[in-house]
Write a sequence for this structure.
């Protein structure tokens, strides 16, 4: 079917609103009408060329929508269902899936593979799709297993956040760091993922939650989401370490890195008390290496680990998030800084740099209908 989509045609350039064709669903696929899309820094990194993708490309991956059409083998979802998508679909039968680590599924490529492109230009040129989703469009195709059901009382403008930043930030605390009420937690970077990690640490009952960011505004916001302390970071990370040690003598038991730079990953490690664990969430350009003190690692029993996409168990996690949202322990509403119509997507991408922004959400139903250029 023909639909409007915003394509990346060259890194660093604005997305181009145009008409593309969406393929019909395979037997185990679902066509979802896009409702809301959270603008994530990963989208921005592909748009500005710091992460690479084939062109033309369809970005957008933090998405909620309504099931429009299901393939013949789909049994769990039906037209009209509200869903949120994950970029970490899983096969359910590989050794990582059966061991409870579906975000490390070894068969993601097979799960996403299809005999025809999902999306093509009118002339037939295939469009590259970020994360097997490609949500900057009126509809997208996903495998049934990549979609979690969301109850209709959770608004689409907030349920989209469950697809990436909440899954990553809260997941890192729950599945990655496994924070308890005895823990002290430092969170570096207070954007959508960092704020989610702060909320996760509060949910887990952490005794201290120290927000760290270079923007004072972000620290103020972080306090309203549960940070007990805040440190304004500068280029000199040793000052940040000293400030943290003044707040929590000896260091924290958990540090969460939600920026995506080797320097902040090293900082996370430097903030740890003996026995502490640094959990690194930020995606970094390919080939980066991290520098940590071998002495601090070995003599201090410290650990450093990843928690890709919050080491999520997506279909179960979404149910957990919904329960916490409904009981007002997980504040998704205030994470939405602004809601914009499709036609303002490029302005929204630029506004992500504003330190007041936690999440900008594209609402496909808002404002004037988008018109192809
Ligand atoms: Zn994302
Ligand atoms: Zn698997």
């Amino acid at each position: 079917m023909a639909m409007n989509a915003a394509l990346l045609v060259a890194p660093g350039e604005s997305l181009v609103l145009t008409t593309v064709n969406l393929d019909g669903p395979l037997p185990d696929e679902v066509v979802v009408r896009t409702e809301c899309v959270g603008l994530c820094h990963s989208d921005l990194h592909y748009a500005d060329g710091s992460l690479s993708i084939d062109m033309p490309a369809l970005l957008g991956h933090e998405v909620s929508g309504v099931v429009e059409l299901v393939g013949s083998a789909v049994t769990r979802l039906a037209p009209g269902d509200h869903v949120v998508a994950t970029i970490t679909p899983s096969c359910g039968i590989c050794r990582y899936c059966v061991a409870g680590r579906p975000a490390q599924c070894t068969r993601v490529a097979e799960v996403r593979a299809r005999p025809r492109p999902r999306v093509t230009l009118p002339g037939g040129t295939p469009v590259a799709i970020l994360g097997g989703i490609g949500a900057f469009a009126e509809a997208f195709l996903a495998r049934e297993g990549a979609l979690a059901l969301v109850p209709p009382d959770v608004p689409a403008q907030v349920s989209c956040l469950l697809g990436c930043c909440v899954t990553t930030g809260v997941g890192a605390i729950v599945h990655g760091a496994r924070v308890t009420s005895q823990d002290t937690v430092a969170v570096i970077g207070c954007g959508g993922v960092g704020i989610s990690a702060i909320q996760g640490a509060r949910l887990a009952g952490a005794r201290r939650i120290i927000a760290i960011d270079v923007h004072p505004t972000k620290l103020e916001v972080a306090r309203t989401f549960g940070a007990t302390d805040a440190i304004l970071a500068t280029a000199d990370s040793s000052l940040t370490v000293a400030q943290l040690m003044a707040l929590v003598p000896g260091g924290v038991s958990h540090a969460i890195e939600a920026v995506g730079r080797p320097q902040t990953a090293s900082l996370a490690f430097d903030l740890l008390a003996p026995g502490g664990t640094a959990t690194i969430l930020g995606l970094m350009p390919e080939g980066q290496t991290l520098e940590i003190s071998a002495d601090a690692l070995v003599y201090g029993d410290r650990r450093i680990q990843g928690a890709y996409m919050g080491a999520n168990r997506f279909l179960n996690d979404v149910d957990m998030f919904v329960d916490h949202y409904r009981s007002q322990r997980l504040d998704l509403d205030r994470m939405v800084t602004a809601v914009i119509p499709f036609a303002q997507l490029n302005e929204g991408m630029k506004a992500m740099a504003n330190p007041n922004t936690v999440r900008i959400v594209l609402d496909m139903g808002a404002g004037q209908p988008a018109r192809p250029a």
User: Anything to note?
Assistant: The chain is about 25% helix and 25% strand. The radius of gyration is 20 Å. Residues 368-373 have pLDDT under 50 and may be disordered. The longest helix spans residues 165-177.
